[in-house]
Structure formats: C-alpha cells, structure tokens
Automatic annotation (TrEMBL):
The chain crosses the membrane at residues 7-28. It comes from Asticcacaulis excentricus (strain ATCC 15261 / DSM 4724 / KCTC 12464 / NCIMB 9791 / VKM B-1370 / CB 48). This is Thioredoxin-like fold domain-containing protein. The lineage of its organism: Bacteria, Pseudomonadati, Pseudomonadota, Alphaproteobacteria, Caulobacterales. Keywords: Membrane, Transmembrane, Transmembrane helix.
Amino acid sequence: MTRKHILYAIMFLIGAAVLGSVGYWLYWDNFVRWQPVTITQKQKDIQELLDASGYAASGKEGPEIWVITYRNCATCKVWEDQELPKFEAIAADIRMVPFAPMDVEGKVTTTASERSTIAEIWLNRSYPLYKQWRAANEETWQPGFRAADGDLARSAVVQASRDFIAKLEPLLGDNGVPIRYPLIIWRDGTQHIRVCACSDERMYHYVRDDLHAPSKLEGAQAPALKIEAQATAAAETVASDSASATGNYGPDSR
C-alpha cells in the first residue's frame, strides 16, 4: 500500500468518524434529549413523597398524572394551558402540587397571597381553587381565606411545600432527571414511574403517548379572557366549599 493509499484511508476514517459524531449529535438533539426518564432507583421513596404532598386532585377515574409546579413558572403555565385540557378530556386523575420556591439570599421570591393560596390548597386539596388561582392575575388575586403569614400552622404548610421539593429533587436527580419545571410524573403501561421535565414543547407528546391523550382537542377554541374580579370572587366561594366538603385541617377549623 502506497503512502497515497494510506493517506486516503486516514482521511476516510476521519470523515466517517466526523459524520458519525454529527449524526449521533443530531439524533440526540432531536430525540434523546427530549425523552422522559424512567425511574430505576428509590421508586418507593418517590411514590410515598408524592402521596404525602398536599396535592389538589381532579378526582377522576383515569390514570394518575402528577404536576409539580410553582406560580411564576412561565414554562409551567404554557404546559398547563396547552396540555392540561387534553388530560382532562381522558378523565385523568390530575394531581397538582404547587410549591413555594425558597427565598434566595434573603430575597423573598413569593407574594403573601401566593403563600396563603398554597397553604389553602395543601390543606383543602381543592382542584377548582387551583384552577381559579392559575387563571387569575397575581396582582389582583385577593383570597378570602386566612393568610399564611403570621399564622404558625399555615406558614408550616408553606414550608412543607418547600421541604417536599428539597426531598424530591435529589431523588429524581439520582435517576438522571434534569430539574426543570413543570415536572410531570406518571406510570406507563408497565407501571414504571416516568418523569418529564417538560420545559420544552418537544417533550409534551411523550406524556400524551403513554397516557393515550389526544394531541388536539376537537372544536378547541382559544380560552376566553377571564375577568379578574370574577376569578377573585370565585376563589372565596371555592375555598369555602372545599373547606366544608373536605374539612379544614388548619387553625381556622375551630
């Protein structure tokens, strides 16, 4: 074999390696990186933690789907606006778990009304209240239930939502789950726990496919603008109804 042939062979091998690397990167970038993670470690710990949270459930008979979210999460709102109606359409047992993000170096990252609403949801598990809160503007949201600030019991509930996240994130991280919100957790057809850090729309279809939810809703229309005053008034009614229906376990139960 001449030096010329050897040079051609080296160039061919280098070219093949480059093309292979580019091909793998394209495959990873377009498919692998968006796939949900199947939990293989500490499944019992994760399930027990979810069950112990103050989730607000839709109460339907379909498959369970857990949505871990917080108020000022823009990607969470996009997912809820686009995907939540599709899972409601298949009567999924949707379990919303809102939490209060931790303060950062003394800077408060949540509002007083946000903390109060999280405490109320965790105590009374009202799915309608969660949806009313999500639909309302934070600046005009004025809940009629007891404030969390200055109330030891309700402040402890807000802290419990933070403790929940502090325990959940390491468990998911040990399984290779990137921590981005919303976190969507469900079980597939073989009952394995699956997690989607659904911060990108390219991830959405994996959850729908596993739970057999539609990609589009027939006759779906853009949601009408909500009048904030109506949403605020409804919040008081929903909170009152949920307290009487499920029992208020907070200090205002007396």
